[in-house]
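sorry for the late reply, my laptop died twice this morning and i had to redo everyting from scratch. anyway the thing you sent over, i finally got around to it. pasting the sequence first so we're on the same page, its 587 residues, then the predicted structure underneath. double check i copied it right bc i was rushing
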Amino acid sequence: MNLTNNYDKCPFIQASDNSNDCIVGWTAITDCIAKHLKAQDKPLKTIAIDCYQGVFEDDILSAFGSKFSRAWFIHTNCAMLTEKELDAFFHPDITDDELFGYMTRYNIDAFFDSTKVADIRKQIREASLGIVIVYGVGAAYLCEHPDLLIYADMARWEIQCRFRKNEIHNIGICNKEERASLKYKRAFFVDWRICDRHKKRLMPHIDYILDTNKRAYPKMITGKALLKGLGKTVNGPFRVVPFFDPGPWGGQWMKDVCGLERTIPNYAWCFDCVPEENSLLLAFGDNQVEIPSINLLFAYPRQLLGDAVYGRFGDEFPIRFDLLDTIEGGNLSLQVHPLTEYIQQKFGMHYTQDESYYILDAKEKATVYLGLKEHIVPQEMIEDLKKAQTNGSFDAEKYVGIYPAKKHDHFLIPAGTIHCSGKNCMVLEISATPYIFTFKLWDWGRMGLDGRPRPINIAHGMNVIQWNRQEFWVKNELINQISTIGKGENWREERTGLHEQEFIETRRHWFTNKVLHNNEFGVNVLNLIEGGSAVVESPTGQFAPFVVHYAETFIIPATVKEYTITPYGETKGTMCGTIKAFVRHHA
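ok and here's the structure:
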C-alpha cells in the first residue's frame, strides 16, 4: 500500500500548440462571433445556440444580449409542450420507479409543440432585417436552417454536480428542487438520449463549440478545431478525465494513490473509463477545452472501435473500467445485474452489465461475496431479504458464498450472479457499460449519503438471480480462471477471463522490458496494475510516446494496430503489469 502518488487526474490531448485556437471569456467569445458576422459576404439572419441539458442558458442570454442588444432572442422553451404535457408524454419512459426507466426512442421534436414551432419559424422567416438568436435545447431544430450554429456542450459529471446543488432543471420543466436522483434518472433515460441523437446530427455542421463547464471561464473553439482534435485523439493512446465520488461504503486507498482531497470522509468510486460519463480535455496551447468523451464516438466510431465492434455495438463504447474503494470502508451492497433478455424487455438496453472484480490491492482478511451457498432454498432467501427491509437484519453468510481476496485475484461476475466486494478491497471493476442497472438486494442496514435508505430492488433481483451458481460452480468457473498463453525472456501473457457467457476478453501481461501488443480485434482498454509508470510507444511512429502511471486506465483505439509498453522512469528494470480488455472476436 506504500505507493507513489503520481496518478494524473487531469489527462489531456494536445490538439494544437496555438492558444489562439481557443477563445476564453464571454467578452472575447461574443467579439469573435461579431467579427464572424461582419466577415460574411451576405448578412446573417439566424444564429442558433443549441444547448445540451444542464447548460446555464441564462449566462448565454446575458453574454450575447450585452453584445447583440438589438437582436431578437427566442428561448426554445417557448415552443415546447407544457410541463404537464411533457410529463404525460414521457411517463412510459420515466416511469414511477425510484431508479429505473426505459431508454427513450424519441428525438428532439418530441419536446416541442408543432403548432408553436410552425408559428415561430414563420415569424423568423418574415422578420425584417436584423439578427435572430435562438438559444436553448433544440435551438437548431426550432429555427431549422440557422446561418450560424453554436453548440454549448456539457460534461455529464458537471450536470450531476449541478443536479445535486439544485441549480438546473430537466428539459422543459421546472424541477430543480426535486431530488437529485430523480433528476438524474429522467436525464439518463430521456434527456441525454435525445440530446445525444440531436448532437450527432448537428456535429458535422457546428460552427463553434462552447465549453461552459467552469462557469467563470467559458471557452469556445471552432467545430473544425473540435473534429481535428478528436481526429488526433483517435490515432493514439489517450485517457478520459476521471471523476471521484464518495459513498456510504467508500474507503481511503484512493486518497493516497490518486492524490485526492483528504478532508472528504471517503471516496467510493473512480470513474476512469466510462466514455458516456467521462470528459476529454483537448488542449489548444495552454488552454484546455472540456467536452464529453462520447463526442469521440459520435465523430469517429469506426476508427475508435474497429469495424467488428462498431458493427456489433454501433456508436456505443462497450467496455467500462472503474475503481471501487472499500479499504478501511464497508461492504458494497449485495446485488445482482439483469440478464440480457431482462434488460432488453424492461429497460430498452440491448446488452447487460456483465462484469468482473480485479483486485488491485487488498488488506488482510479481505473478502468478496460471490454466488450462493450449496443447497439453499431460494424462496427462504427471498423471504429473509424482504423481512430485512423491516427488521434490519439479513444473514448473508447463510446464503452467499464468501471468498478470500488478495492482490491480483480476478473474480468473474456474469449477469445473474449475486455478488459484492467486502471491505478492505481495492477493486478494478472491468465490465460491460450499462452501469446503472444494479439490483440491490441488501445494503447492510445503512443509509445513503443523503440520509435516505438506498433503494432495494428485490422484485427485480429475484427475477434474474441464477440459483444454480453455487459454490462448486463458482470456484470452478469464476475465481482466478488464469492460464498462461504466451511467454518470453522478459514477459508473460495470461488469460484471466472473462467468463464464456461474457463478451469481454481480459489479458494480463507481466513484463520487465518492452512488450509488443498486437491489436487484432478492435479497441483495447488497459490499466497499469503493477509498477509506478510505463511508456506506450508506436513501432511505426504513429503517435508520440505516451506515459501512464499506476492504476490509470487508458484506451488504445482500433486505428493503432500494434504498440509496445515498457517500464518507465524509476520503474525501469522492475516487474510491471497491465490488464487489457477487448471485445471477443466471433469467427
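The radius of gyration is 25 Å.
thats about all i looked at so far, will dig more tmrw
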